[in-house]
Amino acid sequence: MTKTKCSTCSVGDCKSRGQDEGDTACLDHIKNKLVILSGKGGVGKSTVAVNMAVALANAGKKVGLLDVDIHGPSVPRILGLKGKKSKLKAPWLIPVKWGENMKVMSIGFLLPDDNEAVIWRGPVKGSLIKQLIEETAWGNLDYLVVDCPPGTGDEPLSVLQILGPDAKAVIVTTPQAVAIDDVRRSITFCKKVGNPIVGVVENMSGFVCPKCKDVTQIFGAGGGKRLAEEMGIPFLGAIPLDPSITLSGDAGKTLFDLEADHPSRSAMEEIIEKL
Ligand code: ADP
Q: Between 89 and 46, where is the model more confident?
C-alpha cells in the first residue's frame, strides 16, 4: 500500500510530490542505507564509498551516492563529475546522474566555484547536511551510500541521526595503530548512537611492488582484522596500497575500469560480496 505521508519526509506529503515517478526526496523510499565512516581523513573512505556504490549500480541496483564531506568533497573528482552542478527543482535538489543506475549528490555540485573553501560554523553545517540528505530527489533506491565526514564529531553524528537507526556503518581504516585507535572510537560511536556496524575494511594494506611483486607492509598489516575480532564485528576485507587506485581516482575512473583480474578490483569485489 502506498503511504501518503512519510515520517521522515521534511515536507510531509510526499505522494502528492510524485513519489510514484521516483521523484521524491523521502527517506522512506530507500531500502538500505550504508554510511561509510573513518576515524580520520585520508584513509580511503571516499574511494571505498565510491567503488562500493559503483559495484552496486553495476549489479543493477538503484543507488544513491551522497558525499557529505563538506570540507573535502572528493566524490565528484573520483567519478569524473568535477564541474557538474546540481539543479534546483523546488523544493528538491536534483542529483547528478552517473551511468544508468546511480544518482550522486555532493556539496561540490552546489558551490559556484570548485576552489571555494567552506567555512561555515556548526549549526549551518548541520542544516546543510540535513538538506543534502532530506531534500535531494533520490526517488526509490535500493541503496543510499553515504561518504561521511571523518571522526566522531558533530557532522557524522548529524548524518546518523538524520538517516535514523536503520543506517548501517562500514568503517574504513588503514592498518597502523594510530589509525586503528581512531577506528575503535568510531565503533563505540556507532554503538552509542545505536547504528549497526556491517564491518571493517582495511585499506592501504600492503604494497605490491609492480616490478618484483614483493609485498611491503608500509603501514603494518592485519590491524583492521585484529580490531574487528577484538570488537566482535565482521572483517569485510583488505584493499592493497596500489598506485593504480590513486591514478584512477585522480583521472575520474573507478576500480571497475581496471582489468577484470586486477588484485585491487578483486579485493573490492570480495568486500561487496560480503555486504
Ligand atoms: P578519505 O575519504 O578517507 O579522505 P580518499 O578516498 O579521498 O580518502 O583517499 C585519499 C587519497 O588516497 C586519494 O588520492 C586516493 O586516490 C588515495 N587512495 C585511497 N585508497 C588507496 C589505495 N588503496 N592505494 C593507493 N591510493 C589510495
A: 46
Mean pLDDT of 95-111: 93
| Amino acid identity for residue 221 in this structure | A
> What cell numbers appear for 170 in the block?
562500514
Q: Is any atom of ligand 1 closer than 6 Å to the C-beta of 77?
A: no
Distance 49 CA to ligand 1 centre (A): 11
Ligand 1, atom nearest to 78 Cα? 16
CB-ligand 1 contact for 51 (6 Å cutoff): no
Q: How many Å apart are CA 235 and CA 245, to the nearest integer?
A: 21
In 3D space, the residue among 56, 114, 53, 51 whose CA is nearest the CA of residue 83 turns out to be 114
| DSSP H helices in 220-262 | 223-231, 243-250
The CATH code of the domain at 27-274 is: 3.40.50.300
For 40-56, write each residue's pLDDT tens digit. Answer: 888 999 999 999 999 99
- CA 217 vs CA 239, 247, 269, 274: distances in Å: 12, 20, 22, 24
**Residues β-bridged to residue 144:** 33, 64
- Average pLDDT of the segment spanning 70-96: 88
Please indicate whether residue 46, judged by its CB atom, sits closer than 6 Å to ligand 1: yes
Q: How far is CA 17 from the centre of its chain?
A: 27
Give 48 Cα–ligand 1 centroid separation in angstroms: 8
Confidence of residue 19 (pLDDT cuts 50, 70, 90): very low
Nearest ligand 1 atom to alpha carbon 42: 4
